[in-house]
Amino acid sequence: MGEIRRRATTAPNLKRALMACARRGQLAQFVAELPGPLAEGLLADWAVWARPQQLPPRGSWLTWLMLGGRGAGKTRAGAEWVHAMAMGAKPFATEPCGRIALIGETFQDAREVMVEGISGMLAIGRRCDRPQWHPSRRRLEWPNGAVAQVFSAADPEGLRGPQFGAAWSDELAKWPQPEATWDMLQFGLRLGREPRQVVTTTPRPIPLLKALMADQRTATVTMKTAENAANLAPGFLDAVVDKYNGTRLGRQELDGELIEDRDDALWARDAIERTRVVGAPAMVRVVVAVDPPATSGAKSAACGIVAAGLGEDGAAYVLADRTIARATPEVWADRAIGLYHAMEADALIVEVNQGGEMVASVMREADPGVPVTPVRASRGKWTRAEPVALLYAQGRVRHVGVLPDLEDQMCNFVPGGTSEGVSPDRIDALVWAISALMLEKGGGAAPRVRRFG
Protein backbone atom coordinates (compact mmCIF):
# COMPACT_ATOMS: atom_id res chain seq x y z
CA MET A 1 0.00 0.00 0.00
CA GLY A 2 2.80 2.41 0.85
CA GLU A 3 4.43 2.04 -2.55
CA ILE A 4 1.13 2.49 -4.35
CA ARG A 5 0.38 5.58 -2.27
CA ARG A 6 3.79 7.06 -3.04
CA ARG A 7 3.39 6.49 -6.78
CA ALA A 8 -0.18 7.79 -6.77
CA THR A 9 0.65 11.09 -5.11
CA THR A 10 3.84 11.91 -6.97
CA ALA A 11 3.80 10.32 -10.43
CA PRO A 12 1.85 11.35 -13.53
CA ASN A 13 0.54 7.81 -13.93
CA LEU A 14 -1.87 8.29 -11.06
CA LYS A 15 -4.70 6.50 -12.80
CA ARG A 16 -2.62 3.36 -13.24
CA ALA A 17 -1.69 3.36 -9.57
CA LEU A 18 -5.32 3.67 -8.55
CA MET A 19 -6.30 0.86 -10.91
CA ALA A 20 -3.65 -1.31 -9.26
CA CYS A 21 -5.26 -0.50 -5.91
CA ALA A 22 -8.71 -1.36 -7.28
CA ARG A 23 -7.50 -4.72 -8.60
CA ARG A 24 -6.23 -5.55 -5.12
CA GLY A 25 -9.50 -4.48 -3.53
CA GLN A 26 -7.70 -1.66 -1.68
CA LEU A 27 -9.08 1.44 -3.39
CA ALA A 28 -11.48 2.48 -0.61
CA GLN A 29 -8.79 1.85 2.01
CA PHE A 30 -6.25 3.83 0.01
CA VAL A 31 -8.49 6.90 -0.28
CA ALA A 32 -9.62 6.67 3.36
CA GLU A 33 -6.00 6.72 4.59
CA LEU A 34 -5.08 9.87 2.65
CA PRO A 35 -5.02 13.21 4.51
CA GLY A 36 -8.35 15.02 4.16
CA PRO A 37 -7.31 17.79 1.73
CA LEU A 38 -5.33 15.35 -0.40
CA ALA A 39 -8.24 12.89 -0.53
CA GLU A 40 -10.66 15.65 -1.51
CA GLY A 41 -8.31 16.87 -4.22
CA LEU A 42 -7.87 13.35 -5.55
CA LEU A 43 -11.60 12.63 -5.62
CA ALA A 44 -12.22 15.96 -7.36
CA ASP A 45 -9.59 15.34 -10.04
CA TRP A 46 -11.83 14.51 -13.01
CA ALA A 47 -8.91 13.62 -15.26
CA VAL A 48 -8.17 10.70 -12.93
CA TRP A 49 -11.65 9.20 -12.77
CA ALA A 50 -13.14 10.01 -16.17
CA ARG A 51 -13.45 7.51 -18.98
CA PRO A 52 -11.61 8.50 -22.19
CA GLN A 53 -14.87 9.53 -23.92
CA GLN A 54 -15.62 11.93 -21.05
CA LEU A 55 -12.44 13.93 -21.61
CA PRO A 56 -12.13 16.65 -24.27
CA PRO A 57 -10.98 15.37 -27.67
CA ARG A 58 -7.53 16.31 -28.87
CA GLY A 59 -7.00 18.66 -31.74
CA SER A 60 -8.87 21.69 -32.98
CA TRP A 61 -12.65 21.73 -32.65
CA LEU A 62 -15.42 24.23 -32.11
CA THR A 63 -18.08 21.81 -30.84
CA TRP A 64 -17.57 18.73 -28.69
CA LEU A 65 -20.70 16.65 -29.31
CA MET A 66 -21.38 13.90 -26.78
CA LEU A 67 -24.09 11.47 -27.87
CA GLY A 68 -24.94 9.25 -24.94
CA GLY A 69 -27.49 6.83 -23.61
CA ARG A 70 -29.41 7.43 -20.41
CA GLY A 71 -27.04 7.43 -17.45
CA ALA A 72 -23.95 7.18 -19.68
CA GLY A 73 -22.17 10.01 -17.83
CA LYS A 74 -22.56 12.80 -20.37
CA THR A 75 -23.99 15.31 -17.86
CA ARG A 76 -21.05 14.78 -15.52
CA ALA A 77 -18.63 15.24 -18.41
CA GLY A 78 -20.33 18.47 -19.46
CA ALA A 79 -20.33 19.87 -15.92
CA GLU A 80 -16.68 18.96 -15.36
CA TRP A 81 -15.68 20.64 -18.63
CA VAL A 82 -17.49 23.85 -17.68
CA HIS A 83 -15.92 23.83 -14.20
CA ALA A 84 -12.45 23.32 -15.70
CA MET A 85 -13.02 26.13 -18.19
CA ALA A 86 -14.12 28.47 -15.42
CA MET A 87 -11.09 27.60 -13.29
CA GLY A 88 -8.63 27.55 -16.18
CA ALA A 89 -7.64 24.01 -15.22
CA LYS A 90 -5.11 22.26 -17.43
CA PRO A 91 -5.27 20.35 -19.72
CA PHE A 92 -8.86 21.51 -20.28
CA ALA A 93 -8.05 25.21 -20.53
CA THR A 94 -5.00 27.46 -20.71
CA GLU A 95 -6.68 30.29 -18.79
CA PRO A 96 -9.95 30.87 -16.94
CA CYS A 97 -13.00 31.54 -19.09
CA GLY A 98 -14.84 34.48 -17.56
CA ARG A 99 -18.24 34.12 -19.27
CA ILE A 100 -20.01 30.82 -19.92
CA ALA A 101 -23.51 29.98 -21.18
CA LEU A 102 -25.54 27.02 -19.91
CA ILE A 103 -28.56 26.17 -22.08
CA GLY A 104 -31.17 23.58 -21.13
CA GLU A 105 -34.50 22.59 -22.64
CA THR A 106 -36.19 24.90 -20.12
CA PHE A 107 -34.97 26.94 -17.14
CA GLN A 108 -36.27 24.24 -14.82
CA ASP A 109 -34.43 21.50 -16.68
CA ALA A 110 -31.21 23.51 -16.67
CA ARG A 111 -31.48 24.15 -12.95
CA GLU A 112 -32.44 20.63 -11.91
CA VAL A 113 -29.95 18.81 -14.14
CA MET A 114 -27.07 21.11 -15.09
CA VAL A 115 -26.80 23.08 -11.85
CA GLU A 116 -28.39 21.24 -8.92
CA GLY A 117 -28.44 17.69 -10.28
CA ILE A 118 -26.49 14.77 -8.86
CA SER A 119 -23.86 15.31 -11.58
CA GLY A 120 -24.41 19.06 -11.89
CA MET A 121 -22.21 22.07 -11.25
CA LEU A 122 -22.84 22.24 -7.49
CA ALA A 123 -21.90 18.59 -6.91
CA ILE A 124 -18.44 18.47 -8.48
CA GLY A 125 -14.99 19.81 -7.76
CA ARG A 126 -13.49 20.72 -4.40
CA ARG A 127 -15.77 22.57 -2.04
CA CYS A 128 -13.48 25.59 -1.99
CA ASP A 129 -13.66 25.87 -5.78
CA ARG A 130 -17.39 25.36 -6.27
CA PRO A 131 -19.45 28.24 -7.64
CA GLN A 132 -22.17 30.01 -5.74
CA TRP A 133 -25.65 29.63 -7.23
CA HIS A 134 -27.92 32.67 -7.47
CA PRO A 135 -31.24 31.21 -8.66
CA SER A 136 -33.04 34.55 -8.87
CA ARG A 137 -30.38 35.82 -11.27
CA ARG A 138 -29.93 32.43 -12.95
CA ARG A 139 -26.18 32.55 -12.66
CA LEU A 140 -23.26 30.73 -11.11
CA GLU A 141 -20.29 32.69 -9.74
CA TRP A 142 -16.91 31.06 -9.09
CA PRO A 143 -14.47 32.33 -6.45
CA ASN A 144 -12.14 33.58 -9.22
CA GLY A 145 -14.88 35.76 -10.72
CA ALA A 146 -15.95 33.48 -13.61
CA VAL A 147 -19.69 33.54 -14.30
CA ALA A 148 -22.04 31.07 -15.98
CA GLN A 149 -25.50 32.24 -17.03
CA VAL A 150 -28.41 29.84 -17.42
CA PHE A 151 -30.70 30.07 -20.45
CA SER A 152 -33.79 28.29 -21.75
CA ALA A 153 -33.95 26.88 -25.27
CA ALA A 154 -37.62 27.88 -25.25
CA ASP A 155 -36.53 31.53 -25.27
CA PRO A 156 -33.96 32.07 -28.06
CA GLU A 157 -34.19 35.86 -27.69
CA GLY A 158 -32.77 35.54 -24.17
CA LEU A 159 -29.41 34.80 -25.79
CA ARG A 160 -29.47 38.01 -27.82
CA GLY A 161 -26.94 40.42 -26.32
CA PRO A 162 -24.74 38.41 -23.91
CA GLN A 163 -21.35 37.14 -25.08
CA PHE A 164 -19.37 34.10 -23.96
CA GLY A 165 -16.10 32.27 -24.27
CA ALA A 166 -17.63 28.82 -23.70
CA ALA A 167 -21.04 27.17 -23.68
CA TRP A 168 -22.69 23.93 -22.58
CA SER A 169 -25.90 22.89 -24.34
CA ASP A 170 -27.74 19.99 -22.71
CA GLU A 171 -30.27 17.67 -24.41
CA LEU A 172 -30.17 19.68 -27.62
CA ALA A 173 -32.26 17.05 -29.44
CA LYS A 174 -35.19 17.94 -27.15
CA TRP A 175 -35.00 21.72 -27.49
CA PRO A 176 -38.35 23.27 -28.45
CA GLN A 177 -36.71 25.79 -30.83
CA PRO A 178 -33.36 24.19 -31.67
CA GLU A 179 -32.30 26.15 -34.76
CA ALA A 180 -33.28 29.58 -33.43
CA THR A 181 -31.67 28.98 -30.03
CA TRP A 182 -28.52 27.54 -31.57
CA ASP A 183 -28.16 30.47 -33.96
CA MET A 184 -28.44 33.02 -31.14
CA LEU A 185 -25.86 31.09 -29.12
CA GLN A 186 -23.36 31.08 -31.99
CA PHE A 187 -23.61 34.85 -32.35
CA GLY A 188 -22.75 35.22 -28.67
CA LEU A 189 -19.83 32.76 -28.63
CA ARG A 190 -17.19 35.40 -29.36
CA LEU A 191 -14.95 35.91 -26.30
CA GLY A 192 -11.40 34.70 -25.81
CA ARG A 193 -8.79 33.27 -28.13
CA GLU A 194 -10.66 30.05 -28.92
CA PRO A 195 -14.37 29.98 -27.98
CA ARG A 196 -15.66 26.42 -27.68
CA GLN A 197 -18.85 24.63 -26.76
CA VAL A 198 -19.99 21.25 -25.51
CA VAL A 199 -23.26 19.56 -26.45
CA THR A 200 -24.56 16.64 -24.37
CA THR A 201 -27.64 14.87 -25.65
CA THR A 202 -29.39 11.59 -26.21
CA PRO A 203 -29.62 11.53 -30.01
CA ARG A 204 -32.77 12.09 -32.02
CA PRO A 205 -32.78 12.63 -35.80
CA ILE A 206 -33.44 16.37 -35.82
CA PRO A 207 -31.88 18.45 -38.64
CA LEU A 208 -29.69 20.52 -36.30
CA LEU A 209 -28.08 17.45 -34.73
CA LYS A 210 -27.40 15.88 -38.12
CA ALA A 211 -25.88 19.15 -39.32
CA LEU A 212 -23.58 19.31 -36.31
CA MET A 213 -22.43 15.73 -36.86
CA ALA A 214 -21.56 16.58 -40.46
CA ASP A 215 -19.65 19.74 -39.51
CA GLN A 216 -15.86 19.34 -39.79
CA ARG A 217 -15.46 21.54 -36.73
CA THR A 218 -17.39 19.06 -34.56
CA ALA A 219 -15.68 16.32 -32.54
CA THR A 220 -18.31 13.62 -31.92
CA VAL A 221 -18.10 10.89 -29.30
CA THR A 222 -20.68 8.24 -28.40
CA MET A 223 -21.17 6.81 -24.92
CA LYS A 224 -23.25 3.77 -24.01
CA THR A 225 -25.17 3.41 -20.77
CA ALA A 226 -23.44 0.10 -20.07
CA GLU A 227 -20.05 1.84 -19.98
CA ASN A 228 -21.14 3.66 -16.82
CA ALA A 229 -22.48 0.57 -15.04
CA ALA A 230 -20.31 1.15 -11.97
CA ASN A 231 -22.20 4.38 -11.22
CA LEU A 232 -25.73 3.06 -11.83
CA ALA A 233 -28.16 1.35 -9.48
CA PRO A 234 -27.64 -2.44 -9.22
CA GLY A 235 -30.04 -4.28 -11.49
CA PHE A 236 -30.87 -1.22 -13.61
CA LEU A 237 -28.98 -2.41 -16.66
CA ASP A 238 -30.31 -5.96 -16.39
CA ALA A 239 -33.87 -4.66 -16.26
CA VAL A 240 -33.67 -2.24 -19.17
CA VAL A 241 -31.35 -4.27 -21.37
CA ASP A 242 -33.58 -7.33 -21.18
CA LYS A 243 -36.52 -5.25 -22.36
CA TYR A 244 -34.99 -2.79 -24.81
CA ASN A 245 -31.70 -4.25 -26.08
CA GLY A 246 -31.54 -4.02 -29.87
CA THR A 247 -34.83 -2.15 -30.27
CA ARG A 248 -34.93 1.29 -31.81
CA LEU A 249 -35.62 2.81 -28.39
CA GLY A 250 -32.82 0.84 -26.78
CA ARG A 251 -30.27 1.72 -29.41
CA GLN A 252 -31.18 5.37 -29.06
CA GLU A 253 -31.66 5.65 -25.29
CA LEU A 254 -29.02 3.11 -24.15
CA ASP A 255 -26.40 3.02 -26.90
CA GLY A 256 -26.56 6.66 -27.98
CA GLU A 257 -27.16 5.80 -31.65
CA LEU A 258 -28.80 8.23 -34.02
CA ILE A 259 -31.66 6.18 -35.47
CA GLU A 260 -33.68 7.85 -38.18
CA ASP A 261 -36.41 7.02 -40.67
CA ARG A 262 -36.28 8.02 -44.30
CA ASP A 263 -39.46 9.54 -45.65
CA ASP A 264 -39.01 7.63 -48.92
CA ALA A 265 -38.25 4.26 -47.31
CA LEU A 266 -40.66 1.36 -47.76
CA TRP A 267 -40.72 0.48 -44.06
CA ALA A 268 -40.90 2.67 -40.96
CA ARG A 269 -39.35 1.71 -37.63
CA ASP A 270 -42.45 2.65 -35.63
CA ALA A 271 -44.54 0.15 -37.59
CA ILE A 272 -42.04 -2.60 -36.81
CA GLU A 273 -41.86 -1.63 -33.14
CA ARG A 274 -45.63 -1.59 -32.68
CA THR A 275 -46.02 -5.23 -33.65
CA ARG A 276 -42.80 -6.67 -32.17
CA VAL A 277 -43.27 -9.71 -29.89
CA VAL A 278 -40.97 -11.39 -27.41
CA GLY A 279 -41.88 -14.95 -28.37
CA ALA A 280 -43.60 -16.66 -31.26
CA PRO A 281 -46.94 -18.49 -31.01
CA ALA A 282 -47.40 -21.99 -32.38
CA MET A 283 -46.42 -22.13 -36.05
CA VAL A 284 -48.45 -24.04 -38.64
CA ARG A 285 -45.93 -23.41 -41.42
CA VAL A 286 -42.26 -22.40 -41.38
CA VAL A 287 -40.00 -21.50 -44.29
CA VAL A 288 -36.38 -20.49 -44.71
CA ALA A 289 -35.68 -18.18 -47.68
CA VAL A 290 -32.29 -17.67 -49.30
CA ASP A 291 -31.15 -14.86 -51.59
CA PRO A 292 -27.77 -16.05 -52.92
CA PRO A 293 -25.11 -13.56 -54.02
CA ALA A 294 -24.36 -13.30 -57.71
CA THR A 295 -20.66 -13.94 -57.12
CA SER A 296 -18.47 -15.49 -54.46
CA GLY A 297 -15.25 -14.40 -52.87
CA ALA A 298 -14.00 -11.41 -50.87
CA LYS A 299 -15.98 -8.84 -52.89
CA SER A 300 -19.26 -10.75 -53.08
CA ALA A 301 -22.50 -9.43 -51.64
CA ALA A 302 -24.02 -11.04 -48.59
CA CYS A 303 -26.25 -14.09 -48.83
CA GLY A 304 -29.65 -13.25 -47.36
CA ILE A 305 -31.01 -16.02 -45.11
CA VAL A 306 -34.29 -15.39 -43.25
CA ALA A 307 -36.69 -17.72 -41.44
CA ALA A 308 -40.37 -16.88 -41.00
CA GLY A 309 -43.48 -18.74 -39.92
CA LEU A 310 -47.25 -18.59 -40.21
CA GLY A 311 -48.80 -18.54 -36.75
CA GLU A 312 -52.02 -20.21 -35.69
CA ASP A 313 -53.43 -16.68 -35.39
CA GLY A 314 -52.94 -16.09 -39.12
CA ALA A 315 -50.10 -13.58 -38.76
CA ALA A 316 -46.61 -14.04 -40.13
CA TYR A 317 -43.67 -14.02 -37.74
CA VAL A 318 -40.07 -13.28 -38.72
CA LEU A 319 -38.11 -15.74 -36.63
CA ALA A 320 -34.45 -15.31 -37.55
CA ASP A 321 -31.98 -13.48 -39.77
CA ARG A 322 -28.87 -15.54 -40.46
CA THR A 323 -27.54 -13.52 -43.38
CA ILE A 324 -23.84 -14.09 -44.00
CA ALA A 325 -21.37 -11.85 -45.85
CA ARG A 326 -18.58 -12.79 -48.24
CA ALA A 327 -18.94 -16.54 -47.86
CA THR A 328 -18.39 -19.36 -50.32
CA PRO A 329 -21.47 -21.18 -51.65
CA GLU A 330 -20.66 -24.16 -49.44
CA VAL A 331 -20.59 -22.00 -46.32
CA TRP A 332 -23.85 -20.13 -46.92
CA ALA A 333 -25.60 -23.33 -48.04
CA ASP A 334 -24.57 -25.05 -44.80
CA ARG A 335 -25.88 -22.09 -42.78
CA ALA A 336 -29.22 -22.04 -44.59
CA ILE A 337 -29.70 -25.79 -44.23
CA GLY A 338 -28.71 -25.61 -40.57
CA LEU A 339 -31.40 -23.00 -39.99
CA TYR A 340 -33.89 -25.13 -41.93
CA HIS A 341 -33.32 -28.05 -39.56
CA ALA A 342 -33.22 -25.88 -36.43
CA MET A 343 -36.60 -24.39 -37.30
CA GLU A 344 -38.08 -27.73 -38.45
CA ALA A 345 -39.05 -25.84 -41.58
CA ASP A 346 -41.39 -27.05 -44.29
CA ALA A 347 -39.52 -25.52 -47.23
CA LEU A 348 -36.19 -24.02 -48.20
CA ILE A 349 -36.97 -21.28 -50.70
CA VAL A 350 -34.06 -20.25 -52.90
CA GLU A 351 -33.93 -17.53 -55.55
CA VAL A 352 -32.33 -18.96 -58.67
CA ASN A 353 -32.08 -15.90 -60.94
CA GLN A 354 -28.31 -15.95 -60.50
CA GLY A 355 -26.82 -19.36 -61.34
CA GLY A 356 -29.94 -21.40 -60.79
CA GLU A 357 -28.46 -24.81 -61.53
CA MET A 358 -25.40 -24.05 -59.44
CA VAL A 359 -27.52 -22.99 -56.47
CA ALA A 360 -29.65 -26.11 -56.61
CA SER A 361 -26.54 -28.25 -56.98
CA VAL A 362 -24.85 -26.69 -53.97
CA MET A 363 -27.95 -27.27 -51.84
CA ARG A 364 -28.25 -30.88 -52.93
CA GLU A 365 -24.62 -31.54 -52.13
CA ALA A 366 -24.97 -29.96 -48.67
CA ASP A 367 -28.03 -32.07 -47.78
CA PRO A 368 -29.84 -34.14 -50.44
CA GLY A 369 -32.82 -34.65 -48.13
CA VAL A 370 -33.81 -30.99 -47.91
CA PRO A 371 -36.66 -30.03 -50.28
CA VAL A 372 -35.51 -26.94 -52.17
CA THR A 373 -38.21 -24.72 -53.66
CA PRO A 374 -36.70 -22.58 -56.44
CA VAL A 375 -38.19 -19.14 -57.09
CA ARG A 376 -37.38 -16.73 -59.88
CA ALA A 377 -37.82 -12.96 -59.73
CA SER A 378 -39.72 -11.53 -62.69
CA ARG A 379 -40.23 -8.05 -61.19
CA GLY A 380 -37.92 -5.49 -59.58
CA LYS A 381 -36.99 -5.63 -55.90
CA TRP A 382 -39.13 -2.63 -54.93
CA THR A 383 -42.20 -3.95 -56.74
CA ARG A 384 -41.86 -7.37 -55.12
CA ALA A 385 -41.38 -5.81 -51.68
CA GLU A 386 -44.39 -3.47 -51.78
CA PRO A 387 -47.08 -6.12 -51.01
CA VAL A 388 -45.00 -7.37 -48.09
CA ALA A 389 -44.57 -3.83 -46.75
CA LEU A 390 -48.36 -3.44 -46.93
CA LEU A 391 -48.75 -6.52 -44.74
CA TYR A 392 -46.47 -4.85 -42.19
CA ALA A 393 -48.57 -1.68 -42.30
CA GLN A 394 -51.67 -3.79 -41.65
CA GLY A 395 -50.01 -5.33 -38.58
CA ARG A 396 -49.98 -8.81 -40.12
CA VAL A 397 -46.20 -9.35 -39.92
CA ARG A 398 -44.39 -9.36 -36.59
CA HIS A 399 -40.76 -9.64 -35.62
CA VAL A 400 -39.88 -12.07 -32.86
CA GLY A 401 -37.29 -10.27 -30.76
CA VAL A 402 -34.98 -7.76 -32.39
CA LEU A 403 -33.32 -8.14 -35.77
CA PRO A 404 -31.30 -4.90 -35.98
CA ASP A 405 -29.38 -5.55 -39.19
CA LEU A 406 -32.48 -6.61 -41.08
CA GLU A 407 -34.52 -3.72 -39.68
CA ASP A 408 -31.84 -1.17 -40.54
CA GLN A 409 -31.84 -2.39 -44.13
CA MET A 410 -35.64 -2.35 -44.32
CA CYS A 411 -35.88 1.22 -43.03
CA ASN A 412 -33.24 2.41 -45.50
CA PHE A 413 -34.77 0.69 -48.53
CA VAL A 414 -35.76 3.36 -51.03
CA PRO A 415 -36.87 3.17 -54.69
CA GLY A 416 -33.26 3.27 -55.86
CA GLY A 417 -32.14 0.49 -53.49
CA THR A 418 -30.70 0.80 -50.01
CA SER A 419 -29.55 4.27 -49.08
CA GLU A 420 -26.09 2.87 -48.27
CA GLY A 421 -25.76 1.46 -51.76
CA VAL A 422 -25.44 -2.16 -50.62
CA SER A 423 -27.49 -5.04 -52.00
CA PRO A 424 -30.81 -5.52 -50.13
CA ASP A 425 -29.98 -9.18 -49.53
CA ARG A 426 -31.76 -9.45 -46.18
CA ILE A 427 -34.86 -7.77 -47.62
CA ASP A 428 -34.92 -10.10 -50.62
CA ALA A 429 -34.85 -13.16 -48.38
CA LEU A 430 -37.54 -11.64 -46.14
CA VAL A 431 -39.78 -10.87 -49.11
CA TRP A 432 -39.50 -14.43 -50.46
CA ALA A 433 -40.32 -15.88 -47.04
CA ILE A 434 -43.35 -13.69 -46.30
CA SER A 435 -44.64 -14.02 -49.86
CA ALA A 436 -44.56 -17.81 -49.60
CA LEU A 437 -46.48 -17.70 -46.32
CA MET A 438 -49.01 -14.93 -46.96
CA LEU A 439 -49.29 -14.08 -50.65
CA GLU A 440 -48.90 -17.21 -52.73
CA LYS A 441 -51.73 -19.60 -53.51
CA GLY A 442 -51.23 -23.08 -52.23
CA GLY A 443 -49.05 -21.90 -49.35
CA GLY A 444 -51.47 -23.17 -46.76
CA ALA A 445 -50.78 -24.71 -43.39
CA ALA A 446 -48.69 -27.81 -43.05
CA PRO A 447 -50.10 -30.58 -40.87
CA ARG A 448 -47.48 -29.97 -38.18
CA VAL A 449 -47.54 -27.45 -35.36
CA ARG A 450 -44.22 -26.16 -34.01
CA ARG A 451 -43.65 -24.18 -30.86
CA PHE A 452 -40.56 -22.04 -30.24
CA GLY A 453 -39.27 -21.14 -26.83
Structure characterization notes:
Helices cover 36% and strands 18% of the residues. The chain has 453 residues and is an alpha/beta fold. Helix 1 runs antiparallel to helix 2 (14-23), helix 13 packs across helix 14 and helix 15 packs across helix 17 (425-439). The strands form three sheets. It has an eight-stranded mixed β-sheet, sandwiched between helices. The longest helix is centred in the last third of the chain and has 15 residues, at 425-439. The protein has three domains: 2-43, no CATH class; 52-231, P-loop containing nucleotide triphosphate hydrolases (Rossmann fold), CATH 3.40.50.300; 269-439, Nucleotidyltransferase, domain 5 (2-Layer Sandwich).
Describe the secondary structure blueprint for this structure.
Layout (H helix, E strand, L loop, with lengths): L1 H9 L3 H10 L3 H7 L2 H8 L2 H4 L13 E6 L5 H14 L11 E6 L2 H9 L16 E3 L4 E3 L5 E6 L13 E5 L7 H11 L7 E6 L5 H8 L3 E6 L12 H9 L3 H6 L15 H7 L7 E9 L12 E8 L4 E6 L7 H14 L4 E5 L4 H11 L5 E4 L5 H13 L3 E3 L4 H7 L2 E2 L2 E2 L6 H15 L14
Short description:
By secondary structure, the protein is α/β, with parallel strands linked by helices.
What is the mean predicted local confidence, pLDDT?
A: 85
Which percent range describes the beta-strand content?
A: 15-25%
The CATH topology name of the largest domain reads Rossmann fold
Strand arrangement, largest sheet? 3-4-5-2-6-7-1-8
